[in-house]
Design brief:
mainly alpha; Four Helix Bundle (Hemerythrin (Met), subunit A); 2% strand
C-alpha cells in the first residue's frame, strides 16, 4: 500500500510533533526512568550476586541517567534541538557527574563515587561478560567498582531526583 503525498506529509508532521512533545515533556522522561528503575528493582534480589548485581547497576544507572536528563530538559528545553530533530550533544553522554552538574543539582562529593560507579556499569561493567578492554579491567580493579552495588544509596539518589523533577510535572488536577 502506497501513501499519497499528503498522507506521507501528514505522517512526517505527526512524528515530528510527537517526537518534539515527548522529548520536551519531563513526564515522558520520568516514566521511562521509572520503567528502568522498576526493571532494576526486579533483578535486585541478591545484589552481591556476580551475575545479577552488574545488571541491577546497569539498569539503575540508566534509570538515574534518564531522570537526570529529564531534569535538564525540564529546566532548559533548548537541550531538545527541535530544528535539528535531535537531542543536544549535552544529553548524549553517560557521564553522570557531568549530567548532574548540567542539571544544576547541588554538588555532593559523597555522591560522586556512586555516580561514577553507575556510569561505569552503564558504559562497561553491566553490559558485557568482560570489560571492553584489558585497560578497562585495570580501571575497574583500581577504582574498586566491581561488586559495589549499594542499592540503598541508589534508592536515596532516586528519591532525591524524583523530588527534583516533580515541580515540572503537569498534573490533571
Amino acid at each position: 500500500m502506497c501513501l499519497s503525498n499528503q498522507e506521507d506529509k501528514d505522517s512526517i508532521e505527526y512524528y515530528q510533533e510527537t517526537w518534539t512533545q515527548l522529548a520536551k515533556d519531563p513526564n515522558s522522561w520520568l516514566r521511562k526512568a521509572e520503567a528502568l528503575k522498576y526493571a532494576a528493582d526486579a533483578v535486585r534480589g541478591s545484589v552481591a550476586d556476580l551475575f545479577r548485581g552488574p545488571v541491577y547497576m546497569l539498569l539503575a544507572g540508566l534509570a538515574v541517567e534518564t531522570l537526570i536528563k529529564g531534569i535538564i530538559v525540564a529546566k532548559n528545553p533548548k537541550f531538545v534541538e527541535v530544528e535539528k530533530e535531535q537531542l543536544s550533544s549535552g544529553l548524549t553522554t553517560h557521564n553522570l557527574q557531568k549530567l548532574y552538574r548540567t542539571a544544576g543539582l547541588r554538588e555532593n562529593n559523597s555522591l560522586n563515587d556512586l555516580l561514577l560507579r553507575l556510569q561505569s556499569y552503564v558504559e562497561n561493567f553491566g553490559r558485557y561478560p568482560v570489560t571492553k578492554s584489558r585497560q578497562d579491567m585495570k580501571k575497574m580493579i583500581q577504582t574498586r567498582i566491581a561488586g559495589q552495588t549499594d542499592p540503598d544509596r541508589v534508592d536515596r539518589l532516586w528519591s532525591f531526583l524524583v523530588d527534583r523533577i516533580q515541580p515540572y510535572i503537569e498534573t490533571d488536577e
